[in-house]
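Please, structure for the following, as C-alpha cells.
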Amino acid sequence: MGSTVSCCASPESSPKLPSRQPAERLEELQTSTEESDDNTAVPYLQHISDREVPDELASESNPSDHARAATIFLSKSQTDIRDKRRSNHVNHIRHVSPGPLSKKYSSCSTIFIDDNTVSQPNLKSTIKCVTLAIYYHIKNRDSGRSLDIFDEKLHPLSKEPLPEDYAAVDPEHKLIYRFVQTLFSAAQLTAECAIVTLVYLERLLTYAELDICPANWKRIVLGAILLASKVWDDQAVWNVDYCQILKDITVEDMNEMERQFLELLQFNVNVPASVYAKYYFDLRQLADDNELNFPLEPLGNQRAQKLEAISRLCEDKYKYLSRAAMRRSISADNLIGIRRSNAVLS
C-alpha cells in the first residue's frame, strides 16, 4: 500500500520532464536504511546535518530547508497576481471607480496596528494565508503525480460517495479554508502550527516529487497538520483524537499515512528559525498581493501601555545580558576607566 503511482492531471496542466517517480523514491529510502557498514551490522541513518546544502547552492535547493531559497507557493501565485494587476490597470485606464478604500491607514491622530507578529501570528489570518498558498499549489500544479496513500478515493475521509469528477475539479479557497479551520478549531492548534504545516507540505512535494491535486489535497494537508501538531505543540494531539473529528477514518489508516509521510520526508522534521521567518513573511506578502489584509485596530491607551511594558521588559533584559557579558570578559578598552590607587611608602 502506498507504492503505486496514480495520476490526476487536469487537461490544463503543463507537461514536465520525466523524473523519478515517488514510488521509486520511497523504495530507495527503504533500501538505504537497510544498508549496513562493512565493519558493523548497525543500520546506517543519515544525520540531518549531513543533508544540509552549502549556502552557494541554497538558491537551487529545497525552500523548506534553506532560508535563501524562494518559497514554492509564492512563485506559483505570481501568474495570477500579474493577471490581476493587469486587469486592475485596464480598469484604471477605463476610469472605473475603484470603490471605497478597504485598507486603513495611520494618521496624526490615529495609529492602526495589528496583533500579527512572527512570534505570535494571528490564528485566523494565518490559516487564511496558508490555505491560500495550498489553493495556488493545486491550481498551478505542474502535473498530477501522487501516491495511493494520499488518494481520497482509495482512502476516503468520509462515507459520503465522491463525485465522478473529484480528481478534475479544483477546490475553491473557501473549501480548503473550511477544512483546515475545522481541524485547527477542534484540535485547538496554534497559528505557528499552521506555518509549520505549510513547511512540511512543501518539503513533501520537493522530497517525494509529488504534486498536490484535487484527489489528494485533503490527505496531504491532514498528514502535514498531524505531523506539525506533534512536533510543534507541547501537548500533541493523538491520532485517535483526529478520528473523533473525522468520524469515518480509522486509527490504522492515520498511522499508516503518518509513517509514509515521515519516510517521504526522510524523517527530517527540523524547521530552522530562519526558514520559519521566511515562510511567515512570504505569507504576509501573499496576503498583500491578494488584498487579504490583516485586521487592524486603532492604538488605544491600554494597548499602548502593554506595548510600552513589553518594550521596557526587552530593554531591561538587553541591559542585563550586556552587563553579564562585560563581567565575563574585560578588554583593553575597559581598562581606561579603572582608577589606580597611590602607593604608600613606609
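The beta strands are 5-7, 112-113, 145-147, 297-298. The two ends are 95 Å apart (CA to CA).
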